């Protein structure tokens, strides 16, 4: 799949999480609002579906207790576990080994939503324009997980490399599974941790460290024939995303468009290469915003922001062809009534935009 051959034309797309406890009901809700590009649902009400926990299985030294989640790199067995991990990785990447099962496959225990999607979407994929998966990005994963000394594993080059390779093959596994529908597969790397880059919290983290991690996981998706997106739900150094090999930049257009537009030349280059923008125009962070906004107000807000991108010298037809309409972030932390309203607004704004352009 090449990025130039897929144009979403402002179809609605979701981020991933919902405040529910029943995976089937959650998936049916997704299919009602985004039937053209469904995704599998993450339910953070289950501890095992947290951003780190959900993709932790398979990492050497991983320990999960009621009190904490960490990598025990001080244990006597860790070196042997690490060696086994790299042997498994190389068997797949260099010897054509089986990716379908083993440590890099998602399981129903931690990713029940993935398998619910496979069950509910017609296998012929005739109703789909594309299908989406998601995974915690390497920077967020490796800065959110600590070792036996409570130090983020990102700062240990060996553990960071293992984490990046784990994320790479779990993303690649998703692409391979979702290709069964015969439609473009999009994998979003969720990277809320990038909002902290440049702050005192990550003062010793270099740009090169981050770009190398992102490039490796994106390449894994490309190798499997998928499209890769990076989602950041607040302000960030957008050059990290726009200069990366990512095919989709997913951003909070409702609250942080004024920061995103500060990268005009990069935005122009990104779109000129046929890449896509996922406009998070429907608010998710504040209940008052969710309640006050309407389809009309959000459509008007999007159109105003599009005009600012047009002013960079980009044809409006290009912007519309290369855009998704999305919530600003996932809805897993919201009250269910607010989450449902976010989904309805996302659908309605997308439909309004597409009707106006028809």
How would you describe this structure to a colleague?
The protein has 13 helices and ten strands. The protein has 358 residues and is of the alpha/beta class. It has a seven-stranded parallel sheet with strand order 1-10-9-8-7-6-4. A three-stranded mixed sheet has the order 2-3-5. Helix 1 packs across helix 3 (112-120), helix 2 (78-93) crosses helix 5 (157-178) and helix 5 runs parallel beside helix 6. It starts with 10 loop residues before the first strand and ends with a helix.
Write the layout of secondary structure elements.
Elements: E1 11-12, H1 23-33, E2 62-64, E3 69-71, H2 78-93, H3 112-120, E4 131-136, H4 138-144, E5 146-147, H5 157-178, E6 185-190, H6 207-223, E7 227-232, H7 239-242, E8 248-251, H8 257-260, H9 264-272, E9 276-282, H10 287-292, H11 295-310, H12 316-321, E10 323-327, H13 336-357
Parallel strand pairs: 1-10, 3-5, 4-6, 6-7, 7-8, 8-9, 9-10
Antiparallel strand pairs: 2-3
Which key features would you list for this structure?
globular, single chain, alpha/beta, 358 residues
The tally of helices reads: 13
Q: Give, in spatial order, the strands making up the sheet with the most strands.
A: 1-10-9-8-7-6-4
- List the secondary-structure elements in sequence, H or E: EHEEHHEHEHEHEHEHHEHHHEH
Which runs of at least 5 residues are low in confidence (pLDDT < 50)?
Answer: none
Which bin fits the share of residues in helices?
40-55%
Overall geometric form: globular
Strand proportion: 5-15%
How many DSSP E strands?
A: 10
Largest sheet: 7 strands, parallel
The CA-CA distance between the termini, in Å, is: 27 Å
Quaternary state reads single chain
Radius of gyration, rounded?
Answer: 20 Å
| Mean pLDDT over the residues | 96
Structural class: alpha/beta
